[in-house]
Amino acid sequence: MSSIEACRTEALGGHVAACTKCKHQHIAYNSCKNRHCPKCQRPAARDWMAARAEDLLPVEYFHLVFTLPAEIAQIAYWNKRAVYGLLFKASAETLATIAADPKRMGARVGMTSVLHTWGSAMTHHPHIHMIVPGGGLSPDGAKWVACKPGFFLHVRVLSRLFRRLFVDGLVALHHADKLAFFGDMGGLAETQAFADWLAPFRKTEWVVYAKPPFGGPKAVLAYLSRYTHRIAISNSRLVSADANTVAFRWKDYRIKRGDRMKVMRLATNEFIRRYLIHVLPDGFHRIRHYGFLASAKRKANIAMIRTLLGAQMATPEDTPSTEIVPLTLREPCPECGGPMRIIEIFQRGQVPRSRAPPQRQAA
To answer: Nearest-5° angle of CA 81, CA 85, CA 91?
Structure first.
């Protein structure tokens, strides 16, 4: 909260920019660069997307979502690092296992996974968004195996394996004493009580769904730019705010037809509480790559796949614009349109000399 409150204020220092043609000057304060700050994520997304553009392949891309049941999500609320990590691992292993099955695709796939922990109303709703190229490398790595046009894998098959892997992983975490329980669920710390509570979830249907394939690599990049660095709520959704109430727009997914957008009003303390439950543990990576997109061999794998597909490497001209504000100051002078240059840098707590009030002369 302190980072967000201080972002782009004098508390973090900044610099003074001056026009080279007219006398206009203005102060630009530093960003906090906190990954949960709504002001800082657009530049961060721009830089991340620029690095990912060269990884795009000339194939169909698919978007899959892996979601936890609400009751198990409650355990994730208390054990974020352990359960969110398991959510990443189980979903990635599910996709890799089913895709490698010779009866399905028989290929080693690659995927980019992004963790979101919220619903539209900022409630706790952990789920994984996964972007997957439509195909993979053959077991010997000698050819590209494409999926069926417009179809990747059966979501019901994915759902059942995901359920088994996640539940087994949750049991392993419990046996290793890596889970904490509170309130009415405190009794689940006992091994048998936890096993009895978990048993019904081995039979219920877990939600895994796939959206229609993207319309080419350009659409994938535009989509990723909206998802990878998203936070629980953006400034654009805020309607009003004061000391007592915050109003914001949200989408009611229970409405199947018509206008889903509504305005929710929360007490300010409740709004802040909902926002803070989505702060991730320090050092926890919310974007991860698997399969042939894993960081260690990603560049070599992409180059080999492009060769197999007979495609050229991506060039800067091929990289679509994501319409994200640049990280550095490139804007022209707002008065005359001339170029701006930095004439002074000042640290936190300092007053810029070039904009400071004149000192009174001693008598």
So the answer is: 155
Q: Identify the CA nearest to 270 among candidates 231, 244, 291, 309.
A: 244
Q: For residues 164 and 159, what is the distance between their CA atoms, to the nearest angstrom?
A: 9
Q: Does residue 285 contact residue 81 with C-beta atoms inside 8 Å?
A: no
Q: Could you tell me if 16 and 26 are in contact, meaning their C-beta atoms sit under 8 angstroms apart? A: yes
Please tell me the distance from the alpha carbon of residue 68 to that of residue 206, in angstroms, as a whole number.
7
C-alpha closest to that of 272 among 36, 43, 94: 36
The tokens describing 301, both together, are 């794998």
The helix (run of H) or strand (run of E) holding residue 343 is: strand 340-346
Residues pairing with 67 in the sheet: 127
> Per residue in 185-208, pLDDT tens?
999 999 999 999 999 999 999 999
How far lies 8's CA from each of 258, 271, 324, in Å? 40, 22, 18
Separation between Cα atoms, residue 22 and residue 6, nearest integer Å: 31
Residues 355, 18 contacting (CB under 8 angstroms): no
CB-count exposure of residue 29 (10 Å: 0-12, 13-18, 19+):
middle
Calculate the CA 14 to chain-centre distance. Answer: 28
Question: What pLDDT does residue 41 have?
Answer: 66
Dist CA 178 CA 81 (whole Å): 10
Long-range contacts at 260-269 (CB < 8 A, ≥ 24 apart)? 263/239, 264/121, 268/241, 268/242, 268/243, 268/244
Six token digits for residue 269? 């303390």
User: In this structure, what are the phi and psi dihedrals at residue 232, rounded to the nearest 5 degrees?
Assistant: -60, -35
- DSSP 8-state code for residue 348: T
Quick check: 313 pLDDT over 50? no
Helix (H) or strand (E) holding 241: strand 238-241
**Whole-model pTM above 0.85?**
no
Residues 6+ apart with CB under 8 A from 6: 12, 32
**pLDDT greater than 70 at residue 32:** yes
At 358 the pLDDT is 41
So what's the pLDDT on residue 216? Answer: 67
pLDDT (tens digit per residue) in 238-287: 999 999 999 999 988 877 777 788 999 999 999 999 999 999 998 899 88
